[in-house]
Structure formats: C-alpha cells, structure tokens
C-alpha cells in the first residue's frame, strides 16, 4: 500500500519573530491606503527631525530605513506612501503582536498558508498582568506602568487616570467588554484571543 507522506514535508517550524513578520507583511498588503496613511500619521511622522529619526533607528526604536527616505520624511509635511514606507507599517503591525500567544500567531499563519501546517515555536515575551481584565497584555513590572490594555482599555496607573475604581472597571468590562462603553471602538477585535489569560 502506498502511503502519502507529502503532508509531512509541508510541516515546518517557524519562530515567533518570523511568524510576526509573515503576518504583518500579509496585513500590510491587505490594508487600504487610507489606513496606511492613518498609521503613519499617528505613529511615525511626528518625529520629523533627521537627527531624531537617526537616533531612533540607532536605539532600535524604529527599523532601519534609507537616508533618502529619511530626507523624504524630513521634507514632507504629510505622510507619503512609498515602497519603503511599508517597512514602517510592518514594524508597527509587528509591535501590535507583542505578548500574543504562539497559538494566536499559529492560527494567523495557518490562515495565510492554508495548505501547510506551521508550528510556531519560541518563548512568549514576558508580559505584565492587566489588573482589570486579567490578561497578560501589558509590559512587565515598570514597563507596563501607564500602558493602556488593548483588551479592556484600563490605563495601568490606578483609579486616577481611569476616572473610576478598579472594581467599577472590572464590572464594566464584564458588562460591555471595556472599562467604559465609549472605549469599545478602541478595543482590538482579536484582543480576547490574542493574549494569555490568568488561570
């Protein structure tokens, strides 16, 4: 009897960094131009000084881009879509997957490469626990201070910045899916399946 082993050859292991890169590149391809411009406006074009751009690249805060593109950013008052702008878009979308579980990444990869079975490997980034929704969705310890949780929109700084008690925020999250109904538009639709939940 002939055994079909072709499926085994299609299996591959990819690490978290590679998985995020594949997912981000795929998402950039499917983003409408208006959304691309919006991301660039909100996340990159505020640093329009060449020295600041170069410092950000040297520090590793932003990805490496060419001197020509730095000049273009410096001299253009509004975001402009170029092939190299996609480097920044991929960088942004990759950062949005920080703290995502391997299962989430693997699910996204399997949708893109529907005819293969990939196994995403590697340790999750060390994440902090959101005190409101109890997802590991913010920076760990001091890194997570003042961060806004993408699952519930709790600002990790106590009652003050949220203008409500933690107990009220938890109650609202159970009722609405965010600490306040007005913040629902800011919640990532995939957030509840993207992060590890406290057991």
Could you walk me through the main structural features you see in this protein, from its secondary elements to its overall organization?
The protein is mainly alpha-helical and about 200 residues long. The chain folds into two domains: about 10-125, no CATH class; about 125-195, no CATH class. Helix content is about 45%, strand content about 10%. It has helices spanning about 5-10, 15-30, 35-45, 50-60, 65-75, 85-95, 100-110, 160, 165-175, 190-195; strands at about 10-15, 120, 125-130, 135-140, 195. The strands form two sheets. The protein has a three-stranded antiparallel β-sheet. A two-stranded parallel sheet has the order 1-2. β3 and β4 (about 135-140) form a beta hairpin. α2 crosses α6 (about 85-95), α2 packs across α7 (about 100-110) and α3 packs across α6.
- Which structural category fits the helices and strands? mainly alpha
Low-confidence stretches: 1-9
Order of helices and strands: HEHHHHHHEEEHHHE
Task: Look at the structure and give the mean pLDDT.
Answer: 88
Please provide the count of β strands: 5
Terminus-to-terminus distance: 47 Å
Helical content, roughly?
Answer: 40-55%
Shape from CA axes?
Answer: globular
Strand content: 5-15%
What's the arrangement of strands in the largest beta sheet? 3-4-5
Number of domains: 2
Number of helices, counting only DSSP H or I runs of 4 residues or more: 10
Rg over C-alpha atoms, rounded to the nearest angstrom:
20 Å
Largest sheet, in brief, is: 3 strands, antiparallel
Task: Give the secondary structure arrangement, pairings included.
Blueprint: H1 6-10, E1 12-15, H2 16-30, H3 33-43, H4 50-59, H5 67-75, H6 85-95, H7 102-112, E2 118-121, E3 127-129, E4 135-139, H8 159-162, H9 166-176, H10 191-194, E5 196-197
Parallel strand pairs: 1-2
Antiparallel strand pairs: 3-4, 4-5
Helix pairs in contact: 2-6, 2-7, 3-6
């Amino acid at each position: 009897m002939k055994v079909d082993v072709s499926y085994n050859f299609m299996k591959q292991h990819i690490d978290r960094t590679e998985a995020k890169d594949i997912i981000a590149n795929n998402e950039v391809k499917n983003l409408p131009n208006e959304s691309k411009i919006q991301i660039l406006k909100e996340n990159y074009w505020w640093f329009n000084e060449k020295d600041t751009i170069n410092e950000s690249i040297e520090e590793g805060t932003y990805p490496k881009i060419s001197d020509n593109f730095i000049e273009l950013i410096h001299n253009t008052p509004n975001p402009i879509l170029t092939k190299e702008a996609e480097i920044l878009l991929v960088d942004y979308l990759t950062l949005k997957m920080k703290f995502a579980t391997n299962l989430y990444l693997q699910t996204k990869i399997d949708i893109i490469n529907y005819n293969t079975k990939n196994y995403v490997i590697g340790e999750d980034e060390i994440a902090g626990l959101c005190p409101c929704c109890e997802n590991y969705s913010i920076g760990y310890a001091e890194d997570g201070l003042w961060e806004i949780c993408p699952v519930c929109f709790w600002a990790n700084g106590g009652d003050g910045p949220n203008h409500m008690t933690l107990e009220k925020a938890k109650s609202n999250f159970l009722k609405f899916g965010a600490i306040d109904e007005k913040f629902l538009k800011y919640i990532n639709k995939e957030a509840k399946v993207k992060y590890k939940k406290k057991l």
